[in-house]
């Protein structure tokens, strides 16, 4: 008979612990009652000149907004795509390299990193080589249309970032050279 009260006690303690852990979440404050929600006009839209300056944020400087912490800007230029197991640049993709040259001409303080990528098929070693050939072909083309070689770097990522067992549509996007803008 001693085990019955012990089992009953275990059930009661377990229930109490369960219900204590299921406390109601606190309600979120109304945005207008927060510091960022307060504006002179009461509209809730904060003008940057109205941001209160405190000793904690008075020494902050505005970020460039474009370049990441590594001095790279991704997505400003379109990637150059390649056919399966090829490193030659197709005619329609050459316009993207011309756009990259034009960008460098307008922004002389920048350089380009040409990152070669492959789809998931093939060995890691083969794909690193293919990615390198793709990046080198893009570099060779850019030099041929007048870009200074000291403005260009190459890097092969091979299939490092490729989606494994991807569909054909996804693999087409993996076979590319990314044109990454670098700060000088």
Keywords:
4 helices, 184 residues, alpha+beta
What does this structure look like?
- With 184 residues, the protein is α+β, with helices and mostly antiparallel strands.
- It has four helices and five strands.
- Strands 1, 2, 3, 4 and 5 form a five-stranded mixed β-sheet that branches.
- α3 links the parallel β3 and β4.
Q: Give me the number of helical elements.
A: 4
The description of the largest β-sheet is:
5 strands, mixed
SSE topology string: HEEHEHEHE
Return the average pLDDT rounded to an integer: 78
What is the tally of beta strands?
5
- Head-to-tail CA distance between termini: 83 Å
Q: Given the C-alpha coordinates, what overall shape results?
A: elongated
Radius of gyration: 28 Å
SSE inventory with pairings:
Blueprint: H1 3-21, E1 72-73, E2 80-81, H2 94-106, E3 110-117, H3 124-144, E4 152-158, H4 168-174, E5 176-183
Parallel strand pairs: 3-4
Antiparallel strand pairs: 1-5, 2-5, 3-5
């Amino acid at each position: 008979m001693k085990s019955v009260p012990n089992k009953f006690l275990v059930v009661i303690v377990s229930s109490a612990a369960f219900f204590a852990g299921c406390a109601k979440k606190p309600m979120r404050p109304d945005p207008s009652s927060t510091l960022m929600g307060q504006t002179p006009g009461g509209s809730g839209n904060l003008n940057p000149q109205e941001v209160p300056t405190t000793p904690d944020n008075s020494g902050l400087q505005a970020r460039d907004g474009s370049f990441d912490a590594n001095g790279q800007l991704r997505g400003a230029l379109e990637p150059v795509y390649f056919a399966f197991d090829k490193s030659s640049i197709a005619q329609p993709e050459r316009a993207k390299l011309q756009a990259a040259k034009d960008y460098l001409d307008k922004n002389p303080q920048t350089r380009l990193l040409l990152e070669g990528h492959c789809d998931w098929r093939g060995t890691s070693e083969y794909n690193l080589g293919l990615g390198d050939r793709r990046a080198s072909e893009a570099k060779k083309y850019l030099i041929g249309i007048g870009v200074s070689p000291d403005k260009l770097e190459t890097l092969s990522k091979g299939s490092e970032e490729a989606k494994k067992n991807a569909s054909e549509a996804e693999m087409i996007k993996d076979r590319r050279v990314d044109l990454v803008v670098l700060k000088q």
